Amino acid sequence: MIPSGLPTDGTWATVIGSSKPNGAAVKTQHIQFTISLLAISLALLSAHWVELWPQLGAHPLWSGSTTYLGIGVGALLAVFSHVMLTKRPRWGILHLAIFASVAIIGITASTYGKIDFVASYAEDRLAGSIWYYGFVVFIAGMPGSFTMIVRLLRGPPA
């Protein structure tokens, strides 16, 4: 039995309040995500091409591979996060905090790995690996952070 005052044609779910966005809003959200992911990827590649990474602590010979590997891993993580947030949009701030933490932990590990590697006169292979992979993790945290900032500034889908 349907309570009085509610429509009988099945649209009562929208009266109560459906949290699912309509198709056009989701399509716009996917386009926005794709554009922001391409923009940050191009910005990270440009930083490599103007040799910004060695100035920030990457090894000059490794900066190319860390950039390409970091962009690939970061883009995959950002796409995974975007798919998750399409289902549960309230977790956006949590995802931003995770991506920002990944970037901060990566640059911290890279810095300490570089310090130990240089102090050992290039004989500590573990410190060299921490330096390299720390910088990969730093770059991998960037695409997700940027796309989450754009998503949060843009607001919820209408």
What does this structure look like?
This protein is an all-alpha fold and 158 residues long. Helix content is 75%, strand content 0%. It has one domain (22-154). It has helices at residues 12-16, 23-49, 53-56, 63-87, 92-119, 125-154. It is elongated. Mean pLDDT is 87; it is low at 11-18.
Itemize the secondary structure elements and their pairings.
Layout: H1 12-16, H2 23-49, H3 53-56, H4 63-87, H5 92-119, H6 125-154
Distance between the termini: 32 Å
Poorly predicted runs of 5 or more residues: 11-18
| Number of separate structural domains | 1
Shape: elongated
Number-wise, the strands total 0
Give the strand content.
under 5%
> SSE string, helix = H, strand = E?
HHHHHH
SS summary, helix count: 6
Largest sheet: none
How much helicity do the residues have?
A: over 70%
Overall mean confidence score, pLDDT: 87
Overall structural class, as computed from helix and strand content, comes to mainly alpha
List keywords for this structure.
158 residues; elongated; single chain; mainly alpha
What's the short story on this structure?
The chain is 75% helix and 0% strand. It has 158 residues and is mainly alpha-helical.
